[in-house]
Amino acid sequence: MVKNYALEELPAIAKEVIKSSKNKVLLFYGEMGVGKTTLIKEIVKQLGSLDTVSSPTFSLVNEYHTISGEKIYHFDFYRINNENEALDIGVEEYFYSGCWCLAEWPNKVENLLPLKSVTITITSNSDQLRTLELRNNG
Ligand SMILES: Nc1ncnc2c1ncn2[C@@H]1O[C@H](COP(=O)(O)OP(=O)(O)OP(=O)(O)O)[C@@H](O)[C@H]1O
Ligand SMILES: [Mg+2]
Q1: Residue pLDDT, tens place only, 104-124
Q2: Which of 34, 40, 122 maximizes ligand 1 atoms within 8 Å of its Cβ, making it the mutation to test the pocket?
């Protein structure tokens, strides 16, 4: 799927992403400041979590809980120096846990990504308008 969206359409886009995703490992590609965290916030909310979403810049991963008891892991690999740092936090266990995994900067851990995943690429058209492309892998 390919969709253009402005900030006001974020709830609708998040809903579509959840509906279109055939597995729970969502990989968010896109330049700095394009809107990865912004979209993840809305997705986490719609998955039924009341937790505060903020980018896990230093810890690499944040854990959120939904009201139904599901876990959501939010990764930001931007500051990672090498894939070993991701292996050290047990990234593979997270990816194969069956829980929701929402990852920013997945290109930094390219060799560790599961074959079954969903690639979400966000590009910026203007100040307010973004294009989202979603592809199911595996
Ligand atoms: N249509 C839109 N969708 C998402 N964000 C938008 C949109 N229009 C404007 N913005 C603004 O763009 C910014 C996106 O910031 P955000 O932190 O989500 O980016 P990011 O991709 O996570 O960046 P980083 O790579 O640094 O983590 C926010 O300030 C947001 O308000
Ligand atoms: Mg971010």
Answers
A1: 999 999 999 999 999 999 999
A2: 34
Closest CA to 102 of 90, 120, 124: 120
Tell me the per-residue pLDDT of 52-73, one tens digit each, with 9 for 90 and over: 999 887 789 999 999 999 999 9
Which bound ligand lies closest to the C-alpha atom of 74?
2
Residue 63: Cβ within 10 Å count = 13
Ligand 1 contacts CB of residue 106 (under 6 A) = no
User: What domains are defined for the chain?
Assistant: 2-137 (3.40.50.300)
